[in-house]
Specification:
The complex is a heterodimer of chains A (117) and B (116). In chain A, 0% of the residues lie in helices and 57% in strands. Chain A is built from no helices and 11 strands. In chain A, the strands form 2 sheets. In chain A, strands 2, 4, 5, 6, 9, 10 and 11 form a 7-stranded mixed sheet that branches. Classes of the chains: A mainly beta (117), B mainly beta (116).
């Protein structure tokens, strides 16, 4: 397997402030990471694809100025929720693609619960 | 575009029994991967099993095995000797076999409950 670590697991922030969530691949280099949002009892919704050294690719309907993604190294991608509002409260989860001679596999972080008050 | 369908929103099974979760997908690709992920109440997404489309042999991981029918575009998960810890949401997922741009397409999920 592989290890992807996400931090923080839980965060509460005030409305109007910004909050950063980190996603790290601990035992492999990941040129590509993904950020998802998950609503209760629903599947994962892809927000954006984070590419090391270049701009993230956002899915339709996701505000790139609100959800800032930075992938500055091969082991770290960050998601910053700017000017957070209560409707941004959700479960956010990242994943990283690991390439092997037999192909690619996607491993997930533990997820982060964001509550905006 | 690819789609993944899990037609069973909820399933339950008695401890120690066997259960099969269904998954179908639609794609025009020939080379791809299929996955089953487990999401327990902790919300961590855990890789259960991975299948490469070019392999005819069904993947197995201990108590977990798949029935991969490429022509029928079917990828079911069989859990043998079910344990209470298997209670979770299970997601079937598809990914194209390319080195860049690959991403997962998920099904809607199946909530599995293992009863004592």
């Amino acid at each position: 397997g592989a290890v992807v670590s996400q931090h923080p697991s839980w965060v509460i922030c005030k409305s109007g402030t910004s909050v950063k969530i980190e996603c790290r691949s601990l035992d492999f280099q990941a040129t590509t990471m993904f950020w998802y949002r998950q609503f209760p009892k629903q599947s994962l919704m892809l927000m954006a694809t984070s590419n090391e050294g270049s701009k993230a690719t956002y899915e339709q309907g996701v505000e790139k100025d609100k959800f800032l993604i930075n992938h500055a190294s091969l082991t770290l991608s960050t998601l910053t929720v700017t000017s957070a509002h209560p409707e941004d409260s959700s479960f956010y989860i990242c994943s990283a693609r690991k390439g092997t001679p037999s192909g690619n596999t996607i491993y997930f972080g533990e997820g982060s619960w964001l509550t905006v008050v | 575009a690819q789609t993944v369908t899990q037609s069973q929103p909820e399933m339950s099974v008695q401890e120690a029994e066997t259960v099969t979760l269904s998954c179908t997908y639609d794609t025009s690709e020939n080379n791809y991967y299929l996955f089953w992920y487990k999401q327990p109440p902790s919300r961590q997404m855990i890789l259960v099993i991975r299948q490469e489309a070019y392999k005819q042999q069904n993947a197995t991981e201990n108590r977990f095995s798949v029935n991969f029918q490429k022509a029928a575009k079917s990828f079911s998960l069989k859990i043998s000797d079910s344990q209470l810890g298997d209670t979770a949401m299970y997601f079937c997922a598809f990914m194209r076999r390319e080195t860049s741009g690959s991403r997962l397409t998920f099904g809607e999920g199946t909530q599995l409950t293992v009863n004592p």
